[in-house]
């Protein structure tokens, strides 16, 4: 048997191989090499009717050729070889009888062509190789986000893929194989190590080059950053603290796991009795006396890096506890933690030194019965700008934030603790010598509340309190959400005063043998807070309100003649989780029993400004009726309190609007009207989840405002703000807070010392009526 030796030069696109193949005798096929059976090596080997090809894998450009180095041993009369080509496209190329593979001239993408050679003499024996046909070598690297940010000395592992049987690559940094200490190094496995210092520029280029084709590469950018420095940030900032009072500071430490700080006062660790002390947790306790200078520096020094710190100022101010001295009546109302209404009225006696005691009546939708004449005691502090804090030893304890006027006669109150109840209210100085004998004459009243199931309830009315504790000629106009207005007249009742020290008493109103019971606390003979004390679960509404002496009648159209500022609060009829706040001004003309004016409205975040005109009527008792087609809620009823002053209630609809009109004493309107320091706070019961705040505002008379507020829902303490304002020819005042964020209000002046206001922010779906008083 003869043997053949064949030498063939193969063109494979962009590389040339000079290969020598040997014929071989027919041997068992299992001894053949490569991807089929047998040995993969060349040389003189015996084969038994065997066929082999080499190399097992190679690469070729479209249209290129590959010598498959066919080894085939067969007798002289052999039957030949059958070729089978498989690939991902229709045209896989071709193989000549001499074993020369020609790739297809065009490929849409890289393809792998499988080539199988089978001996026709022994069809069970075959050999398989692969040829990769590609027009361009593509190198890909992972991750491939560019730039990749890496701190000095940190590492990043990269991996590559190459569309070639030869997947080897060369790694470079800024064109240098393997990189350098200045720009970072990269291993042969793709592990990049950033340099020890930030290079200039701080961004380097990592390049991956294909071994099989040096023109094929890909690059990504790596930005080298220094190790983040430890930073310290103190909050709150630049606050005032009354002597003996406390203020909690916190320090946020970043870029280290060691977040401990050392607290200092004017550079002294922990402070001292002269400057004030500060605990390891940041609780600052002001000194007993105002130091000189009064402005001090609070510093937090990082334990991890003592060169890093932050400082803020704290100004020590004298306590103004003497502002509260004597007896005060108060009223509070708001939702509890579950959104159910709760209300309280009472009397507190302040000693001028920070101590208080008194009585308090509480009723709540969630309570089985009212708590009447409960003893209460506590403490208070009053600091800068007459902003104070009151602590009452109830269960749970009650903390109130308040601002008091310069005479100490009245204050605005909001709850400021974490119990979940959201009280707002007011506190007024009680006159001396309170007794039931002062509860005499004609009175009007207004109140609001809810039923057991949460429907809004409002009522206004009038009665006569006579000597001997009797009530006569009582009228009641009440409106429950979802029902028509109900009116009662000629009711009678009784009243007593159980405690002259606190001005506390009880009264009842009778109708068809059924009595409704209330408690009251007297501020003066002409001003009382009252609270319903019947158990709410027994299908009684919870109501809280105010009783005011009515001026002497008879009344007529002339009782409303001139300008009045009016305000109303309620709930959105279609969604009682949202509230309504409305403020405006009308001009009444008694000769034609007509009025006209304008108002601003925030109805659950729907803000509008409307001009209106209408008509009104008044009877001799001071009861009146107002209607206007332009007024959104169409109809109001009212009782005259005094000239151009009236209590108001919506008679139709389901908004439950209740409010007041008061005479506008100012006559000239420009920016000079708004001048001085004003206490600001809510005057309507907040909605569950609504924001409540109180504080002070300083207007300069030239269009600029600044101040601070305390916000329960945000936990803000003495949060400063600033902004601007403008007053038009009608007195309508637009206030825009511009820092720390933008917020818009509209206010109407009853006088230069009193404004009623609402927010006109579309995102404020639970607005409160507010007042600003000097």
Describe the structure.
With 774 residues, the chain is mostly beta strands. Helix content is 0%, strand content 56%. It is built from no helices and 65 strands. It has an 8-stranded antiparallel beta barrel with strand order 34-35-36-37-38-39-40-41. An 8-stranded antiparallel beta barrel has the order 42-43-44-45-46-47-48-49. The radius of gyration is 45 Å and the shape is elongated. The chain starts with a strand and ends with a strand. 42% of the residues are buried. Mean pLDDT is 90; it is low at 1-48.
Question: What attributes characterize this protein structure?
Answer:
774 residues; mainly beta; 8-stranded antiparallel barrel; elongated
Radius of gyration: 45 Å
Q: Characterize the overall form.
A: elongated
The overall pLDDT average reads: 90
Q: Which residues form runs of ≥5 with pLDDT under 50?
A: 1-48
| Extended strand count | 65
Number of helices: 0
Q: Largest beta sheet, briefly?
A: 8 strands, antiparallel, barrel
Fraction of residues in helix:
under 10%
What class, by secondary structure content? mainly beta
Q: Strand portion, in percent?
A: over 45%
Walk across the major sheet and give the strand order.
Answer: 34-35-36-37-38-39-40-41
Distance between the termini: 125 Å
């Amino acid at each position: 048997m003869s043997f053949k030796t064949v030498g063939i030069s193969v063109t494979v696109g962009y590389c040339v191989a000079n290969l020598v193949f040997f014929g071989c005798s027919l041997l068992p096929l299992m001894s053949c090499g490569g991807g089929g059976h047998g040995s993969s090596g060349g040389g003189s080997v015996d084969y038994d009717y065997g066929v082999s090809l080499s190399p097992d894998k190679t690469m070729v450009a479209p249209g290129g050729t590959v010598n498959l180095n066919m080894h085939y041993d067969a007798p002289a009369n052999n039957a030949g070889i059958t070729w089978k080509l498989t690939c991902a496209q229709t045209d896989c190329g071709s193989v000549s009888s001499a074993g020369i593979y020609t790739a297809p001239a065009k490929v849409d993408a890289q393809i792998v062509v499988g080539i199988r050679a089978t001996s026709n003499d022994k069809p069970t024996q075959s050999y398989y190789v692969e040829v990769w046909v590609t027009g361009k070598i593509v190198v890909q690297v992972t991750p491939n986000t560019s730039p990749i940010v890496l701190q000095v000395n940190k590492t990043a592992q990269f991996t590559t893929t190459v569309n070639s049987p030869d997947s080897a690559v060369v790694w470079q940094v800024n064109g240098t194989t393997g990189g350098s200490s200045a720009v970072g190094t990269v291993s042969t496995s793709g592990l990049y190590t950033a340099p020890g210092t930030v290079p200039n520029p701080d961004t380097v280029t990592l390049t991956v080059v294909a071994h099989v084709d040096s023109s094929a590469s890909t690059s990504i950018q790596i930005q080298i950053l220094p190790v983040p420095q430890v930073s310290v940030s103190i909050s709150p900032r630049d606050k005032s603290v009354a002597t003996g009072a406390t203020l909690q500071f916190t320090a946020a430490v970043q870029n280290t796991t060691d977040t401990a700080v050392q607290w200092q006062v004017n550079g002294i660790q922990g402070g001292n009795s002269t400057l004030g002390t500060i605990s390891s947790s940041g609780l600052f306790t002001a000194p007993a006396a105002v130091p000189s200078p009064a402005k001090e520096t609070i510093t937090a020094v990082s334990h991890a890096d003592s060169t890093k710190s932050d400082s803020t100022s704290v100004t020590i101010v004298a306590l103004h506890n003497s502002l509260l001295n004597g007896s005060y009546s108060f009223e509070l109302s708001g939702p509890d933690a579950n959104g159910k209404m709760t209300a309280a009225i009472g009397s507190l006696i302040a000693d001028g030194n920070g101590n208080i005691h008194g009585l308090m009546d509480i009723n709540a939708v969630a309570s089985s019965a009212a708590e009447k004449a409960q003893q209460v005691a506590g403490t208070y502090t009053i600091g800068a700008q007459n902003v104070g804090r009151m602590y009452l030893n109830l269960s749970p304890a009650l903390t109130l934030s308040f601002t008091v006027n310069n005479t100490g006669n009245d204050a605005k109150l909001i709850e400021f603790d974490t119990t979940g109840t959201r009280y707002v209210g007011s506190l007024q100085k009680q006159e001396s010598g309170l007794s039931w004998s002062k509860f005499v004459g004609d009175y009007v009243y207004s109140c609001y509340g809810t039923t057991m199931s949460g429907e809004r309830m409002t009522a206004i009315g009038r009665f006569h309190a006579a000597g001997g504790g009797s009530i006569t000629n009582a009228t009641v106009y009440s409106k429950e959400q979802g029902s028509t207005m109900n009116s009662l007249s000629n009711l009678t009742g009784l009243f007593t005063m159980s405690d002259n020290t606190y001005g506390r008493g009880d009264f009842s109103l009778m109708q068809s043998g059924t009595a409704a019971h209330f408690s009251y606390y007297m501020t003066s003979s002409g001003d009382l807070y009252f609270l319903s004390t019947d158990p709410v679960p027994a299908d009684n509404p919870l109501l809280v309100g105010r009783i005011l002496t009515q001026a002497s009648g008879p009344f007529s159209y002339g009782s409303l003649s001139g300008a009045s500022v009016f305000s109303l609060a309620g709930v959105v009829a279609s969604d009682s989780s949202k509230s309504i706040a409305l403020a405006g001004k009308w001009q009444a003309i008694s000769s034609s029993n007509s009025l006209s004016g304008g108002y601003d409205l925030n109805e659950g975040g729907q803000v509008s400004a409307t001009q209106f005109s209408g008509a009104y009527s008044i009877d001799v008792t001071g009861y009146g009726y107002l209607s206007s087609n332009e007024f959104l809620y169409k109809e109001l009823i009212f009782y005259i309190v005094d000239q151009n002053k009236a209590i108001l209630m919506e008679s139709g609809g389901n908004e439950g609007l209740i409010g007041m009109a008061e005479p506008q004493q100012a006559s000239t309107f420009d920016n000079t009207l708004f001048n001085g320091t004003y206490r600001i706070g809510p005057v309507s019961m907040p909605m569950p989840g609504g924001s409540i705040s109180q504080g002070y505002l300083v207007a300069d008379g030239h269009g600029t405002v600044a101040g601070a507020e305390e916000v329960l829902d945000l936990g803000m303490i003495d949060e400063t703000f600033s902004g601007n304002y403008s007053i038009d020819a009608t007195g309508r005042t637009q206030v825009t807070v511009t820092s720390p964020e933008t917020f818009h209000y509209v206010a109407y002046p009853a006088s230069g010392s009193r404004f009623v206001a609402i927010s006109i922010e579309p995102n404020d779906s639970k607005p409160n009526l507010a007042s600003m008083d000097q």
